Amino acid sequence: MKKEIEIPTNCPSCNSTLEAVNSQLFCRNTECPAQSAKKVEAFVKKMRIKGFGPATISKLGFVHPIELYEASLKTYVEILGEKIGQKLYDEVQNSRTTTFTTFLSALSIPLIGDTASKKITASIRHLGTTLDIMVHNLENLDIGEKAKQNIDNWARSEQYLYGVDLEEYFTILNNVGRDAAVAAGSMGKICITGKLKEFANRNEAKKFLEEHGYTVTSTVSSVTNYLVCEDGSNSSKSKKAESLGIPIVTIANLIGKY
Question: Out of 3.40.50.720, 3.20.20.20, 3.40.50.10190, 3.40.50.970, which CATH number does the structure's domain 186-255 have?
Fold first, then answer.
C-alpha cells in the first residue's frame, strides 16, 4: 500500500505558513533564514565577490548583503581563519567599486534584473538612503507595473537598510556620468584576445563587459578604445593595438576590481 505524501503547510526553515501558487509552495516571510542566505549568495555571485559559497556564508551568519561590508576584518579572521578571512575581507572591500546597475540587479528584487536595472539607473541615478526608491519615482519608467510594485514592496520592507546612506559603502554609485554612459552602452569599444583569467570563455566576458556599458567587437581598428589581453600573448591583435596606441588592459584593470 502506497503511503500518501503529506503536503507541508509550514516552511521548514522559519515555520511560517506556506502559500500555494499554481501547485507550488512559497514562504512569504521576508526574514526567513533560508531565503536570506540565498539572497546573500545571489548578491556575491552578481557582484563577483569570490570565495563566498553557501558553507562560508552559513559560517559567517550573514542574512543581508550589507553585512558583508559592515563586518570587520577581525570578524572574518576569527570565523574563517587568518588566511581565508583576510582574502575574503579584501574581496569584499574591492567590490565597493561598482556601478549602480550591477548593485541594484544583485539585490534579488523580483523582476529587477539587468535590463530593468539599466532603465532604473538612467532614471534615478543613485539609491541615496535606499528608501528613496519608491513607485512614484518610477511612474514613467518602462519596466511594467508588477516590477514597479516589487520595487515599492522591497523598499518598504528593507528595515535592515532603513536610513543607510549607501555612499558610505560604495564608491561610484552616485557617479552620474559613468552610470549614464553604462546605461547608454557608450563606455567604449573593446576587443578581446588570448586566454582570460577570470572568465570561462569570451561569451561570458562579453556579457559582463556589455553589462558595464562596453561594446565588444571582434577586430581591432582605429575606433577601438581598449584591447583586453590577460595572458601576455603577442597576437596580431596585440601588435595592431600597439601600433595604433590602443591601451592593452585586463578586465579587472578596466572595470576596477569587480
Answer: 3.40.50.10190
